[in-house]
């Protein structure tokens, strides 16, 4: 073969290899929505935490496999991605880390919407409420003992030194303000069964119609119930200098720690809808509340999971539609 033909072959070889490399550029993710469980299919049946998000943003997309994650991931052409992360702190945070470390995606400017159902104390919330998290507090980091082994009426929790950097997270107040402002006129869904159930509680907050609220999300793998543990959660929120305890859930603080180590916390929003009270009404025991008789369960689940998306989607849409204003950080808004 003539020597002058060799450079041409080399250029052809380089171009052949360059094409697939260029196609592997990571996809920039503008918003990531993390749900914790889905009940059945992603659409067309009883909705869990992902379904309304899926129908709004990903019904025309293909599932993308992410090794190490709980489930497939979905992304649309606008840079909105989402997945079911799994229930509980370890499950969900392992999924989040697998997703963040996957080289197919660029999360360097991503906003994170951590979304799901939860419980609420009847003194501060009601079935169908949706609460923007201002603080995320880990319920499990510290020391606990049986009440009879301490001083009567005294708290049975004590923080342990060394957990200061990951037992609480104050979320970006500016981002929370955006979420509240954009969702303040949302028409919340409700049901007759939820209205009837609320009347079993004497608290004004419990009997009220669903609304958008702000407060601390308390993350614990233990599904704690009863007035005593509810009071303890409030005690912990005050102990850590956080806002009032509004939501009990199982994942947000753990997911936030994973995101913090890789991207920081300025772009995290935690959004939870209340589908149960964290304690029984005055005429039932905590065990009866946990294992209710037929007809004694709270209504409003279907309405609450819809409310979560109704409340959270305006922020997602605002970020995507005005990406030039958002890509470098949370912008100022009319309330400032």
From TrEMBL:
Cleavable signal peptide: 1-23
Presence of keyword Cell division: no
Sorted UniProt keywords: Signal
Domain of life, source organism: Bacteria
Record-given protein name: Purine nucleoside permease
InterPro entries: Nucleoside_phosphorylase_sf, Pur_nuclsid_perm
PANTHER family in UniProt: PURINE NUCLEOSIDE PERMEASE C285.05-RELATED (PTHR38643:SF1)
Organism of this sequence: Sulfitobacter dubius
